[in-house]
Amino acid sequence: MNRSSAEQSSEESPPDYQGLSLRDVCFGSMDRLDNRFGRLLGRFLLLLFRGWVLDLRGLEKVQVEQDPFILVLNHNQRLEALLVPTLLIHQRRGRTVRFLGDWNFLMIPVVAQFYRRSRVIIITRKDAKPKFLNRLKPLFEEKLPAMTRALHALQEGDSVGVFPEGRVNRDPGQLLRGSPGAARLSIESGAPIIPAGIRFPGHDASKPIGDLEKMTIEIGDAMHPPLFTHGERAPAGEVRAWHDRIMLELARLSGKQWPPAGSERERAVGSPASP
């Protein structure tokens, strides 16, 4: 007997996130990731940190059927760069979102293995700490710039993840100005932006955000870039305007302010978003 379309749709929709049980982590399907070691490594990382994400809203907006898109998130602590991509792999049954990631993490053995298995797009712009490790940087550099590799990934149907602030920002009330790279990538590829705000419900707002604070994630609606003739370089003014819209929505979802108080961008855009 044929099932109704409504029944099929209900079965294909992702369940609401209610935390990760041991059963979810150990036996949840990750069949879209064809690397067995990668699946084991992902499950191991989720076992370590499975209680760190208290709530995750909007999962249906980042399912495989929505690929390709550019996921942008605020960046508050080091753990996010590892936990969020791993959680998304699990919730997307093994299909990766290809995050842009700092080459420094490749010098941490377990993290390096995860980066390779999840096809992270490595950025080698920053210096290492301590500085003598910069001698190793040429081993991780690639011929094409990271944003060019990200553009190719989108053209091949993969989704890309970006922390547009560019570095960890522990300020509980304000986003950094951010890099317009994700905005340019969106305009020149035509891929929508999916904004996602990370909050810390138990955080003391008078203190910087710590590395082991538990989080909630709210994924917003897709933002479609302005029409553009692909194959050309987007004008700087269009990129800046699109970046402003993205960051204002990220501010709303994360409960922070943008642009930075007193900046030229604040005077151009208007009052910061309310937390």
Helix share bin: 25-40%
How far do the termini sit from each other?
Answer: 52 Å
Q: Give the total of domains.
A: 1
What global shape is seen? Answer: globular
Enumerate the spans where pLDDT stays under 50 for 5 or more consecutive residues. 1-14, 271-275
For the sheet with most strands, the description reads:
7 strands, mixed
CATH fold name: Glycerol-3-phosphate (1)-acyltransferase
Total DSSP helices = 9
The CATH level-2 architecture is identified as 3-Layer(aba) Sandwich
Question: Averaging pLDDT over every residue, what do you get?
Answer: 86
Q: What is the radius of gyration computed over CA atoms, rounded to a whole number of angstroms? A: 19 Å
Order of helices and strands: HHHEEHEHEHEHEEHH
What strand order characterises the main sheet?
Answer: 1-7-6-2-5-3-4
CATH class: Alpha Beta
What percent strand? 5-15%
Total beta-strand segments: 7
- Helix/strand-derived category reads alpha/beta
Task: Please tell me about this protein's structure.
This protein has one domain (21-246): 3-Layer(aba) Sandwich (Glycerol-3-phosphate (1)-acyltransferase). It has 9 helices and 7 strands, in the order H-H-H-E-E-H-E-H-E-H-E-H-E-E-H-H. The protein has helices at residues 5-12, 22-27, 36-49, 80-91, 109-117, 146-155, 181-189, 236-254, 264-269, and strands at 53-57, 70-73, 97-102, 121-123, 159-162, 193-199, 215-219. Strand 3, helix 5 (109-117) and strand 4 (121-123) form a beta-alpha-beta unit. The longest helix has 19 residues, at 236-254. The model is unreliable at 1-14 and 271-275 (pLDDT under 50).
